[in-house]
Amino acid sequence: MLNKILFIAVLIVSAFMMSNTVNASPVETFEFRDEVTKIRFQALSKELRCPKCQNQNLADSNSPIAADLRFELYDLLQQGKADSEIVNYMVARYGEFVLYRPRVSSLTYILWFGPALLILTGIIVVIIILRRKPAPKENLALNSQQQEKLQQLLEGNQVQSNQEQPSQNLNTDKKDKE
Amino acid sequence: MNKVIRFLPLILVIALGVVLYRGLSLNPQDMPSALVGKSMPDFSLVTLGDANKIVSKADLVGDIVLLNVWATWCPTCKYEHPYLLELANNPQLTPYVKLYGLNYKDERLAAQQWLTNYEDPYQFSIFDEQGTLGLDLGVFGAPETFVIDHHGIIRKRFAGAIDTRVWRKEFAPLIKQLISEKQQGK
Predict the structure, then answer these.
(1) Considering A82, A84, A117, B161, which has the largest number of Cβ atoms within 10 A of its Cβ?
(2) What is the ipTM of this complex?
(3) Is residue B103 a contact partner of residue B127, using CB atoms and an 8 Å limit?
(4) Minimal C-alpha gap between B117 and chain A (Å)
(5) Which 96-115 residues of chain A touch chain B by CB within 8 A?
(6) Which of A49, A54, A58, A65 to mutate to test the interface with B (most CBs of B within 10 A)?
(7) Nearest to B34 among A54, A64, A95 (CB)
(8) pLDDT in tens, A28-76
(9) Burial state string for A120-142 with b = 16 or more CB within 10 A and e = fewer than 16
(10) Which candidate in A94, A96, A105, A132 is best for mutational testing of the B interface (most B CBs within 10 A)?
(11) Which domain holds residue B126?
(12) Is B147 within a domain?
C-alpha cells in the first residue's frame, strides 16, 4: 500500500517537472528600433501560424521552426519591410496555411461566406415557415352554409337533448371540409 | 415531396457523418507546398564533405533530382536511410534520377560521421547550417523530400519518411512521368 502511494507520488512529481520544462514559454530577447516595430512584431507573430505545430501561432510555439521564423520575422522588420511584404514572403514559402486569417480567394470563398450563407438560408427557412402558418386560419371561419347547418344542429340539440349527435355531426363536417 | 423532406434530417446527418469520418483518416501534416510548380530557389552554400566547395542551383539542375532534407537530430531520417541507399543503387533509376542531400541545421562533424557509419546515398549533401535554403524551400522539419524536374521546377514536396510503400504510391508515377517528359525533350 505504502509502495503504491509512493509510486503515485513519484509519478505526480515527475509529471509536474516535465510539464514545467515543456511549458517554458519561448524566451528570446529582441531589440527593436522603436515601439511601433515592436507592436508590429507582436501582432504578426500572433497572425502567423507555426507550420509544424499546427494549432499554435509563432508567438506561442516552442518548436525550432517557429523560433527560426520569429528571427526571420524580426530580420524582415528590421530591414524595414512592410507587413504585406512580410506576409507575402511567408506565404511564398509555407503557403496560405501560415495565415490564421486566410485571404479571400476562390479557394476560401466557402470559408468566408459559408457561415453568412448558412445564416441567410436559416432566416429564409424561418420566414417561410412563419408565413405558412396563418394560411389554415382562413379555412377555420365557417361559410354561410356551414353557419346555417350549425344553427340547425344547435337548435335540434336543444329540442332532442341528444348527447351523441353533435360529435358525429362534427366529424362529418370535418370530412366535408377535406 | 413531403416524404423526402421528412428524411432530409437523416440524410444530412449521414452526410455529415461521412464527411467527419473521412476527416479522421486525413493527415493534417500533409500540406501542399507553396513551391510546387515554381522554380527551385537560388542558393549558394558549401557541401557537407568539403567546407571550401560552394554549390549552387546550377549544380542540381539538369537531371531529375530528389532533394532529401535530413539531419542527425532526426530519428525518422535514420529509419528512411536504408531505403535511400536502395534508391541510390537502383539500376533502373540511377541513369535518370540523382539523389542529393540537404543537411538541415546540423553539426558538420556529426553529419559526416553519420554518412561514414551508415553509408552515403547522396551525390553530395548541401550543408545548410543556418537553415536558409530550408526556409526558402518552406521546410519545417526533417525528413522532407523534393522532386525537381530537369528544368529546375519543383514538382513535388513530401514531408515524412520514404519507404517502399510511400515510394510506389507517391513518387514512382511522377518519376516515370518526368523521365518520359525528359526523353520527349519537353
Answers:
(1) B161
(2) 0.77
(3) yes
(4) 27
(5) 96-97
(6) A65
(7) A95
(8) 788 888 889 999 999 999 999 888 887 889 988 888 888 889 999 999 9
(9) eeeeeeeeeeeeeeeeeeeeeee
(10) A94
(11) 31-183
(12) yes
Task: Give per-residue pLDDT as tens, A4-15.
Answer: 766 666 666 665
CA dist., res. A63 & res. A35, Å (int): 27
Residue B73 DSSP SS3? coil
Domains of chain A, earliest start first: 14-98 (1.10.8.640), 109-160 (no CATH)
B108: exposed, middle or buried (Cβ count in 10 Å: 0-12, 13-18, 19+): middle
Query: How many domains does chain B contain in total?
Result: 1
Contact A65 B141 (CB under 8 A): yes
Angle between the A83-94 and A64-78 helix axes, to the nearest 10 degrees?
140
Answer whether residue B6 is part of any domain.
no
> What type of residue sits at position B33?
S
Is residue A78 packed enough to be buried (19+ CB in 10 Å), middle (13-18) or exposed (0-12)? Answer: middle
Nearest to A40 by CA among A100, A96, A84, A103: A84
Determine the 3-state secondary structure of B103 from DSSP.
strand
Alpha carbon of A90: minimum distance to chain B alpha carbons (Å): 9
Is the overall model pTM greater than 0.90, yes or no?
Answer: no
- Please tell me which of the candidates A54, A72, A94 has its beta carbon nearest to residue B138: A94
CATH of the domain at B145: 3.40.30.10
